[in-house]
């Protein structure tokens, strides 16, 4: 039987929306480690942020998807120092008409102290969140009826805007789903499961063999997805890491031959 590979969003999924804790998911993380199941983190967070989380949960030997798929952090690697892609995004953003540019506030506009204020992260963590290499998250704070115009103007210049659980993130278009496909090929043959809670997770959920929409009481629920009708995608009733723990434990129990052998 093929091995299992788990792909997971972070904020609102593996991490609690308010506390950023993964503690309720620890039993399933331990189960994955015991059964040699890779847990691939896939988030809008930077490589600097994800490298620390990946080490803390014990999966530094597994690649991670950073900045909404704009980059990959290889196994055991630290964050790099090439910020050229991010510099091009900021240059494109600043080239917009002033009335459109003024409606968007990004991490670069805020600086590390502003990121700490907006996110509630400690300043040390905010510095890592501010260290963008491939994308620029932020908030549209202009008139609501002009947000689509802002997004279209960026698209015309080659920059994509994708809605996550908290922020509108600007990048050159690579997605979590693109990176999931690459990593699945590296682990093939495998059976994959993806977990997420936000619009920017939908393609990832559809790409994996199975998808789980994690309940998030702090965000508008995702609309029904076509694959829910076939059971390929399911929803949890519990929020964040508690729902994550339940879904991953159930999936491993059902599909991991190693786990079944341990129970025998």
TrEMBL record:
InterPro entries, per the entry: HAD-like_sf, HAD-SF-IIB-MPGP, HAD-SF_hydro_IIB, HAD_sf
Pfam families, per database record: Hydrolase_3
Source domain of life: Bacteria
GO biological process, one term: mannosylglycerate biosynthetic process
GO cellular-component term (any): cytosol
Keywords in alphabetical order: Hydrolase, Magnesium, Metal-binding
UniProt GO molecular function: magnesium ion binding; mannosyl-3-phosphoglycerate phosphatase activity
NCBIfam families, per database record: HAD-SF-IIB, HAD-SF-IIB-MPGP
Protein name: Mannosyl-3-phosphoglycerate phosphatase
Lineage of the organism: Bacteria, Pseudomonadati, Pseudomonadota, Alphaproteobacteria, Rhodobacterales
